[in-house]
Amino acid sequence: MTAEKPVTHKKERTKKPSPENQQKRKINDETDSPKSKAVGGHKKLKQAATDKKLLDYYWALASDDPKERLEAAIGLLKGLNESDSEADWKYAFDRLLKGLSSSRGSARLGFSMALSEVLNCRQDFIDVWLYLDSVAEYFNIPSNANGHEERGLNFGTLFALRTLAQSPLLFKSSTTIREFERFIDLSLELAQRKIWLRESVFFALCDLIKKLTHDKFENLGYSIKNAIELTLKKVQDAGVTLTSEGVALYLSLDEGQRNEFSITGGWKNNDPLLTSNLVSLAKALKEVPVNNEQNEDASDRAKLKGNWKPTLHFVWELLIQELNGIKKNNEATKSKDKKSNKIKKDNVIPQRVGIDEFWKVVVDESLFANSASSERKYWGFEVFILFLQLAAPQNVKDLFSPNFVRCLTNQLSQQDRLLNKEAKKVVSSLQDAVAKRPEITIDIVECLLEKIPNFDVITKTKTLSNLILAVPSDQISRLVDVFVSIFEDPKKSEEKATELRRQWALDNLLSLVKTRRSEPGSSVWIEQIINVLVKFGFFKGLGPAVSPTTVENCHTRLNSVLSLTVGSNRDDNRSWAFYVLNSILSLEEAKNELVHDFEGDLLKAKNKSIKTLEKIRKKRSSSTHADTSQLEAFELLFSLVLIQVYSTDSEAATVLDELQMCYNNIIGKSCHQEDDGEEVDATQVLSEILLSFLSRRSALLRRLSETVWSTFTSQITKESLQLLYDVLESSESAQGQGELFDEDDDNMEIDEEDEDDEENEADDEEDDENDDDDDDEISDEEEEDDDDDAVKEADRQAHEALAKALGINEEGEASQSIDEDDDDDESMDDEQMMALDEQLAGIFRERQKVLNAHKTPTQKKQASLEAKQNMVQFKSRVLDLLEIYIKAQSSSPLLLTTIPSLLTVIRITRDVSLGDKAHQLLKNKLCKVKTLPKLADGDVENALEILSSVHAQARRSTNKAHSLACNQASVFLSKTLLNHDKDLAEKISSVYASSLTDWIKVSHSKISPALFFDFVNYIASTKNNKK
């Protein structure tokens, strides 16, 4: 009876028979064969017709739906057990065995599953020899078979042999060694018949060997050792031992069992993973001849696989499982050898390769070699993905070998690379692996950072960045150590490359603080980062020499770290700023050399501030009641200012005395008076200090100002707030900047009017461009020449003045003069030094005046633009302070004083974002406070004046936002006044009446009608609520 094959006639494919006819034809096909007639003839036909449902199961076994196949197999076995007919069992065995050659749907999967269950149920009635006879008969390939038929019969043989290996027939007490040998012969004959079937055949053999070695059998009809040895000899005779399949077969045996068999001509000591077998193993896994003689033997060459396939051989999974435990075994062997110390040279225990050595020889230097083909490298990537999933955590670092990393980087760098998609698959596997096994993340990151730190830049991916974010919290300290090691030893010969590498390391350390500082245990590694920045930013000789640029980068990154942590405290109740300063002081006390030394008044101010800081720490540590938020704020202030002083910030040095005075007045309760006898407002001085911090482009100083300001909001006075109002009401120009910071008028020649004049002049010049282009060019050249002469003259005069002040010979003999006057310099007192400093400052100021006066039009416009940007940023930061104050002091009557300044900003600013920010602050924060300001009797007149000023601004409104803000502020003020005293309604109404009169009389009045509607609506809503 021939094997079951799908119908291939064209007519039958185009017209499918009805289910009734199809079922009848199936019955006829099954009963017309000689085999079926021998079983029962017409009786079988009648039984098959009555068991129509049972026959349907055979058809369903070929379904592509796994669930349907499983239900069909269950139904078939249930029906066979219920009928318990020998004829049914015989028919099922023949039908299922023959169906293994069918290519219809998933017939082979469904039929092999059902056949396996039939063999399990009928193991007492079927022997191995009969089964193998049926396989040989049913799947015999006739000489006239076409390629499709031959392929089907080969697959039928394969599935039949695999089903037998998984059934209990081979492990019965009645099974003999001859039957086992015949099974091996048929398997190897199939493997030799078609090379592309060899892997599948050996997969079944490996499962059989594992079952023999690991399962326990009672009354087995043959010796397991003899069966395994027979198998190994047969494989050796077939010449397949030194192949991937041969490796898999030997790895299926336990390590201790491999030496029990005497197989010659194959793997030494029957263990492919011995060091002596490593070269041969690499060739075998690469699918090339192991011995040179094989190249001359045509039969051996035929054993090599002719067609490459992308799927990975199953032997690699066996290899990683075996390699995971070898390193520990080797270490145990070495320790045992050291203890005994009596091993003779001729009895040396064969050494097995670890995963590091295996990966280097078998994968890195073979599959990823420079001469390797793209197909081999594809295999290498697949092996990496597999090993990454299964390798023990301690073995992951061995996978990132040089050739692999190089190949991965090259394939990712360009989209048109042949293996670009496969390389992206590797990157994706890295992400999946760290998600499933977070403990290996740090090892992967370390390997990439050590080999190619700029991996993301070269590959145009975010692989390394994403992996860094995935590092578990408890392993970030190791990551910090990696970046620090790169910083200390960039391994670059060129100075520029060294600087870039160190800057890159600092940037990554800062990125860690930005993204991971809120995680548990972050204090430990943040301290590591700070210690490195302090060591290289402030001291010499504590590590490799670094350039001034690197020192400056350390200062910048340290300020950034502090700006990110300035609002949070450590576990020991100390601020991070104090920790940084304490680290600096500790290294300084250890007699380490500072990058910049202190001397004179600056040294005294620094020491005094440090003593004050020690007092603050002592008070805070004395008891929880003494530890106030103001003490914490002053600790933060002193610490950060001193850090800036150590960073040679000249502006920070001038703040120390003022800060000392504020501390004495607020904490020490001592009154400080000026020379004229007036008492100094400490909060006003503190506000000036904070404003000076805000005027600088420093995120750290901005965060510091906001933190300290929030602490002292309850003590802020009207005069202190006026300092903020002065900033908001100043002009957004160079002139406004000069007035605000008391700069010389000569330095501030460009204001808004100048800009308008220049624009008008430019328009006039464009109108007359065709008439006097030549004259303009000549005048511009003459003006530039005059400017150059003036600048040169200013430089000459400054040079002469400096030479005279310092006593230096104008001919350039400065060094000689200085050497001769060393004694005089040493004898100069502080007053003389201060006078000299003032004289030098005056010389440089005069020179700067000349430079400012002779700027080119382009330089003047640029300076004006920079001044405008500085003022806009400054005002924006002042608005942040006001927002903090409004939130903290919502019931304070001083809250009303913020309204005129906010309206002024909205009206005069030319920056849309700044005006919108001021409007939102007034609308959403100030006018919507939960508790209205509580006015005293003395505050009423001031509130009415503010209301009148709001209406006055409404008459001069310049934009819609300003008009809306005036309406909202007017209603808020009216609400506050009426909440204090209802009798104030008359005065409030008079203010509105005056504005209404102006709106009626003035035809082009800027007052919006909504100003009156909003007030009336508020009053109406108040009355309705009372009802």
TrEMBL record:
Keywords: Nucleus. The keyword Nucleus applies. InterPro entries: ARM-type_fold, DNA_pol_V/MYBBP1A. Residues 740-790, 810-828 have a biased composition (Acidic residues). The keyword Ion transport does not apply. Residues 1-45, 733-792, 804-828 are annotated as: Disordered. One of its GO terms (cellular component) is nucleolus. It is found in: Nucleus. One of its GO terms (molecular function) is rDNA binding. One of its GO terms (biological process) is regulation of DNA-templated transcription. PANTHER family: MYB-BINDING PROTEIN 1A, MYB-BINDING PROTEIN 1A FAMILY MEMBER. Belongs to the MYBBP1A family. This is Pol5p. It comes from Sugiyamaella lignohabitans.
